[in-house]
Amino acid sequence: MIGILVVLLAIVLIAINPGRQFGQANDTKRRSDVNAILNAIGGYAADNKGALPAGIPDALPAADVGLTTSICEAIMPNYISAVPADPTLDNDAGITNCTADPIFTAGYTVIKDANNRVTVNAPSAENPPISVTR
Description:
This protein is 39% helix and 10% strand. By secondary structure, the chain is α+β, with helices and mostly antiparallel strands. The chain has one domain (2-133). A 3-stranded antiparallel beta sheet has the order 1-2-3, covered by helices on one side. β2 (118-122) and β3 (130-133) form a beta hairpin. The protein starts with a helix and ends with a strand. The mean pLDDT is 81.
């Protein structure tokens, strides 16, 4: 009887897979955060005749610093109340002070291409990496 319960418990744990569930939940938050950042940048561009916030690099620098203070100051608080932080950073409130060091640990990156299309990435995503371009 105990053996049957152990087998059933093992099957249930494999089916539920808590680690995978947490990973999927984190990725869902990352997708939401990436879109929120991109929407804030889009709102800024719409209000500024298509001009993007200063500080968006053309490519990621060698040391991935993520969002810059100038991007943060351009979009917050008018277009987003707080810059979201990656769920693994334990900062549920997001970043509300653009000049503080935590802005560089938001866990997201922003780049633009030659056509001024903006890409926001979540490099810490479980699988696959999350990246949205507009």
